[in-house]
Design goal:
There is one protein chain. The strands form 4 sheets. This protein has a 9-stranded mixed sheet, with helices on both faces. Strands 12-13-14-18 form a 4-stranded mixed sheet, with helices on one face. The chain has 363 residues and is of the alpha/beta class. Helix 3 packs across helix 4.
């Protein structure tokens, strides 16, 4: 009934990504897997959430919310394996009155540190803490779990997520051999992290990305039809019925939403006009390229780094950025606004759509 990770776990690659409907049990599977690996092999793990508020919430009551599902799962003790891990995570406190015997949980969250029987099993981090952990050491960390990496809102903060995650991995892993798991729900069709990695999801199934060293990442875009029992149980639940009544079934169907109209999306392959208009614009560290299309109109596409000069909208941003000369062109802002209003710009993805809005409007 819940997500079967056996196939994706069988791939020999350092990065695994799962995009599925909410509640299918993918987070539970990896928290369970990494907890067991710590207990049996001493491999520490890091659990990354989106905000510091989420860290604080999970850490309440010694991490009761973090551990509850796992403790309840092992509590059944219907196999020797479950009994073994239940005894590692809990301890029976014997009293004179056997009726008052208590079970003490030995798995805790102390601030941002994950503890099992007093030993450090790992760390709980938020995505925005990437700058604070650069000088810290994370010994014996082998596994990193990044939960809900696809954000609800695509804005400047979300555009920074690839840099944040890369920084966290560099701080934690450096030269170590680590396993990285990214879990998300189908919220945004063009997620900045997936786009940077080269994933374009157009149908359910498995996607692969290779680099110079071989298979690097495998992504499973999960078809809800593969889990009919879960779908049926959810549809009968109050939550499922309420979502259906409100028409908010997007995540249950594992379908992406987008602010970018379909008629504004570029159709691949892209053909540019020979000798046509090319412009590279930037705000802060966000840059895109505007190129004239062979069939008319303009393409807003990822900046490929092939430029000697970038244009900004305000004088304070003039200077140099990552080796590029940045020049202010105040007239350019109105020109781009006119092009946007005239609907003559087509976009590679919602990421570039959001970047151009940020560069021109600041939002």
């Amino acid at each position: 009934m819940y997500y079967d990770a056996s196939k994706i776990d069988s791939y020999r690659c350092p990065v695994k990504i799962i995009v599925s409907r909410r509640g299918l049990g993918k987070t539970f599977h990896y928290v369970k897997l990494f907890t067991e690996r710590f207990i049996t092999k001493g491999e520490r793990f890091i659990y990354v959430v989106e905000t510091g508020e989420m860290v604080d919430e999970l850490a309440k009551n010694n991490g009761e919310k973090f551990w509850a599902s796992l403790i309840n799962y092992y509590k059944e003790q219907d196999t020797s394996r479950k009994r073994y891990f239940y005894n590692k995570l809990t301890e029976l406190i014997i009293t004179e009155d056997e009726a008052e015997n208590q079970v003490m949980v030995k798995a805790k969250l102390v601030g941002g540190t994950i503890k099992i029987n007093g030993e450090t099993a790992g760390y709980l981090l938020d995505m925005n803490s990437f700058g604070e952990i650069k000088r810290n050491n994370f010994p014996n960390v082998r596994n990193i779990l990044i939960d809900e990496f696809i954000t609800e809102k695509l804005d400047k903060t979300a555009l920074d997520n690839p840099r944040k995650i890369a920084s966290i991995i560099q701080s934690v892993g450096r030269l170590k051999d680590i396993n990285l798991i990214l879990l998300g729900n189908a919220i945004r069709f063009d997620d900045p992290i997936l786009s940077r990695m080269g994933f374009k999801l157009n149908k359910y199934g498995f996607y692969k990305q290779y680099d110079n060293h071989g298979l690097f990442a495998v992504l499973h875009f999960v078809d809800p039809a593969d889990y009919p029992e879960f779908a049926e149980a959810h549809d009968k639940s109050v939550a499922g019925r309420f979502s259906k009544m409100l028409g908010e079934t997007n995540e249950e169907e594992n379908k992406f939403k987008s602010d970018l109209p379909e008629d504004r999306r570029l159709v691949l392959p892209i053909k540019y006009k020979k000798g046509g208009y090319i412009l590279n614009v930037v705000k802060e560290d966000v840059a895109v390229s505007i190129k004239e299309l062979e069939v008319g109109g303009y393409a807003c596409v990822p900046f490929n780094g092939r430029a000697t000069m970038l244009y900004c909208m305000t004088e304070k941003e003039q200077g140099f950025l990552r080796g590029y000369r940045v020049i202010c062109n105040k007239v350019l802002k109105q020109s781009l606004l006119n092009m946007i209003k005239a609907n003559i710009i087509f976009y590679y993805s919602e990421v570039e759509y959001t970047k151009l809005k940020f560069i021109v409007k600041g939002d």
